[in-house]
Amino acid sequence: MRDERLIVVALGGNAFQSRGDRGSPREYWANAYKSAEIIVDLVELGYKVVVTHGNGPQVGVIDEWMFLGLKMKGLPPMTLDIAGAMSQGWLGYILQQAVYNKLVERGLLNKRVRGVVSLITQTLVDKNDPDFKDPSKYIGPWYEKEEAEKMSREYGWIFKQDPRGGFRRVVPSPDPVRQIELEAAKTLINNDFIVILSGGGGVPVYINERGFLEGVEAVVDKDLAAERIATSIRAGILMILTDVDKVYLNYGRPDAKPIDIMTLSEAKRYYAEGHFKPGSMGPKILAAIRFIENGGLEAIIAHLNKAREAVEKRSGTRVVPDHILKT
Question: What's the CA gap between 130 and 186, in Å, rounded?
């Protein structure tokens, strides 16, 4: 049985930093408190909330800082998996504090929620995943074409044009298998804690020939990781929050068509027809498809600022099992 009051919320990159932000601590805190309001709104509505979040801009910035800064000092750079772990600590800290303070402000701490915990999470992947040969995950800041080409020549990084504009570095994004720390998370969830886990998709790891975990240079897609979490904890709802109000067919074109609700079959057909770009809406739709296929009650894709309206079916796009629209 799925718990219809258990919801996994996957916060997009705009939960911490919007395009145009300079990335100052003040901006990060302001954005985190806006995201905390959304999470606590759901608690007030009677949901038990589990949170994951993206780290695309932040992990790229950390990796560039470490690569360029250490290189200038003649020191070996850190690896991308370490950068991912650092971003989980950074973003988890500000989000858990913001959520905690909002719970206190609304008188919900120790009533509906016992506390807020962020977990440094490792996500198991296949070291032979095809994305290692053709990287697809956008990370870091946006650059003009000339600057991106210069950095590519100097550092060997791969850049692609982001569907949202500009050029960004791309790195491998292997498909998530499961979160290593999930049982610990379940214990906290069952004891009424809000858990923030698998930030940025989690640190990608594989199991080597000795049975040991080993990190890999990659960034896991947070929406696909969120589906693995939601399915594993038997959540009823997967909510993916982003910077658009709905899912659109022909997005960005004059004939763009918003979608309020679509069945699993419709979502699979639109996905196969190529309506959703790999670097933007594609992983969100794929996560929704997998969630419903695995028994989820509904997946919601909505704007970050419309989360409450979306869960009340007044905004966003819902993906549901086929039988829902046949009755």
Answer: 31
